[in-house]
Specification:
- With 148 residues, the chain is mainly α.
- The chain contains 6 helices and no strands.
- The longest helix is centred in the middle third of the chain and has 43 residues.
């Protein structure tokens, strides 16, 4: 979560994910490294996913196919799909938080560069419509029976 949020710069997500990381037992040093985007000291079992997450965010959600291949080779197909799902969820949350921040700045008469009121309203209102539909679709998706 922090590898993506660090790149995308969402202050709300940064705060929440930092607090959750500390509660989950991440050391203060590891947290500081994640917040700086310094992934060199993490074990390879973690660093591949962290580096991929960072790359995903830096590439504007268009990762290099070789990076995706390494993720899949390291973790397998199912875990890689789960990692991608989390990364996409965090990216969406960062977009939402940063858009909310842009709207607040606009209301304070300090509009964010590269943003528009229409874009801000579209993202925020659209999210309120899309998220419940997505959650409903997820709960209605039949589970595959792996016993056969």
């Amino acid at each position: 979560m922090l590898a993506v949020t660090q790149v995308n710069g969402c202050r709300y997500c940064n705060y929440g994910h930092s607090k959750a990381a500390l509660a989950a037992g991440v050391s203060q040093k590891e947290l500081q490294n994640l917040l700086k985007g310094d992934l060199d000291e993490f074990p390879e079992g973690e660093s591949v996913a962290l580096t991929f997450a960072q790359h995903y965010a830096e590439s504007d959600s268009k990762p290099d196919p070789l990076a995706l291949k390494r993720l899949e080779e390291t973790y397998g197909d199912e875990t890689s799909r789960q990692i991608l799902a989390y990364i996409r969820m965090i990216t969406f949350g960062n977009l939402y938080g940063n858009t909310f921040d842009a709207l607040i700045s606009r209301l304070l008469l300090k509009p964010a560069s590269g943003s528009s009121l229409l874009n801000e309203l579209f993202v925020l209102i659209g999210s309120l419509i899309i998220m419940p539909i997505g959650m409903l679709m997820h709960t209605r998706t039949p589970k595959k029976d792996h016993r056969s």
